[in-house]
Specification:
2 domains, homodimer, mainly alpha, Arc Repressor Mutant, subunit A, DNA-binding
DNA sequence: GTCTATAAGGTGATAGAC
DNA sequence: GTCTATCACCTTATAGAC
């Protein structure tokens, strides 16, 4: 996943600055996604990045600035799978492909998923502007596309918004609730993702086929 | 939701002790569910309970003891909706009824849902024993029931474990990701739960009907 | 750019009066 | 049982040497 840091006031100029900035954001992703904003400490991030704590704060002015840069850099990529759902494709296949892309994201980028999950569960204090902005806009746009498919009889009637919520929840569940799933299934590595793939394709295909 | 505190070593004896213990657990639920274990402070819990911090620690020996008592008291109730799914009912209606009970829990007890969500997202450090114990046992039992229904041709073939995961994720989503849903839908109060009810009933009915 | 030292404030827990 | 006062520790952030 591409990380595009936005540092207010301090842009990375030299090669070493850029490299350290990326190292910090990678470490911050690891720590924030595991412990949440409040639970994460600069000590943990510094250690994970292989830097001293003051050096961390040389690159970012504060803990919250690291968190903000991380989320800003990830938000665009996080929404890409939904953006790729196009109105001119085969409706059922477009939605199924979106489901599978989203599941693949949960498998490949579970830390990113948990970063957002931590934030939203606690009331989304730092990203509500983005939820009510670009996320809301994108969802409304795609809900209109789905609504059009329903009116054309291409997919079975349903509430487009809640369909999207169901796709988010079922797929992200495999990242966000990974600990619970592993406690129940005791899978070897990612073996259960193949089952999940088949299950979710079946679930939404039965839901959508007219 | 019934809270049955288990305080290691200190059982509430007098009426006032019992009342204070319950007040503390109610306050702790409010604070822990909103900020997670690490993010919550004893100051916040004490203030919410209307007690001083040392008085809080007169009733519970430590912060972690409060958290543990809270989870222990809620775990049984949290699993009841699944326990009520009986092998001798009409299969499709049994599963649908379970979905709707679970959604009702998300609407009535969102704090309880977020308490568990916070815990699991961060790797379930304090409840993994319960996940691998009573939760795993219950899920295996009910998965066997669903498997039986499939073999009898009463419901359409699917993976019982992942079906249960889909039910959990779609219903709890309305509690755990409430902030995101409200940011997108801007519903008045709980108005969107009626839509969710209809949507999820449709989703799982189409999935399960042979 | 990176470090050691440290300030400044928050946080879990205890002591002891009442 | 409840309180004030306080300790010991942790955490964010800054100062200043190199």
């Amino acid at each position: 996943m591409r990380i595009e840091p936005k540092m207010p006031g301090r842009q990375p100029r030299t090669r070493i600055q850029k490299k350290n900035t990326e190292t910090i954001l990678e470490a911050a992703l690891e720590v924030f996604s595991q412990h949440g904003f409040r639970g994460a400490t600069l000590d943990q991030i510094a250690k994970a990045a292989g830097l001293s704590k003051p050096n961390l704060l040389y690159y970012f002015p504060s803990k919250v600035a690291i968190h903000r840069a991380l989320i800003d850099g990830l938000m665009k990529t996080w929404l890409d799978p939904l953006r790729e759902m196009k109105a001119d494709g085969d409706p059922v296949e477009e939605v199924i492909a979106y489901v599978l892309r989203k599941l693949e994201m949960a498998r490949e980028f579970p830390r990113e998923s948990r970063l957002f999950a931590n934030e939203i569960v606690q009331g989304a204090p730092n990203i509500m502007d983005k939820i009510e902005g670009e996320l809301k806009n994108l969802v409304e746009e795609k809900a209109a596309v789905i609504e059009g498919w329903i009116e054309q009889g291409k997919i079975a009637p349903c509430n487009p918004y809640h369909l999207i919520f169901s796709i988010w929840s079922t797929t992200q569940h495999y990242a966000d609730f990974d600990a619970q799933i592993r406690g129940i299934l005791h899978p070897e590595g990612d073996a259960h993702f193949e089952q999940a793939r088949h299950h979710l394709e079946t679930l939404f295909r039965r839901m959508l086929t007219p």
